[in-house]
Design goal:
Chain lengths: 110, 111
Amino acid sequence: RKEVEQDPGPFNVPEGATVAFNCTYSNSASQSFFWYRQDCRKEPKLLMSVYSSGNEDGRFTAQLNRASQYISLLIRDSKLSDSATYLCVPFKAAGNKLTFGGGTRVLVKP
Amino acid sequence: EAQVTQNPRYLITVTGKKLTVTCSQNMNHEYMSWYRQDPGLGLRQIYYSMNVEVTDKGDVPEGYKVSRKEKRNFPLILESPSPNQTSLYFCASSFSGVTQYFGPGTRLTVL
């Protein structure tokens, strides 16, 4: 089993709709989680950090379920500019280890 | 402007011809790392450095070398590139090793 698993998508989303997708992780020692956004062929950029059960930043909400070992990202009122690949990144303090998921591609359409 | 720069951005080379990809950051970060990104495999760490003269292997270090002689620079060296090193490479820097700031990427093709 991969350390981090994400549905590659694409998730085709009408503009203004809500989309949610999950990331499952295998290492229960992961302490923090990050969502990065990556536009096509460009560098990943930090979208959100999750240190406890979840986090909310504007239209973006992340929720962590440690018991089931997954973290979700929800995007409300989707904009065309939200089209990107979203990378899930668990972090283990032991070894200072970040593990990047393969990403979930989201396409927001008019 | 706080940034991580990489050069070159695009490179086509031939098998066995040594090359260096430079990486520089102006944020005074101690932690720097190199990743490669391949379709279906995501970002994989090649090498990382926690400070000047301190480097360590990541998940896929074979065929690569790095050095950290100055805090701001962290070059990636391919002594004898092979076609399986064709990839998109990202340099990243971080204050603590957690939140990563990525450079714009270097697209390398080895023929």
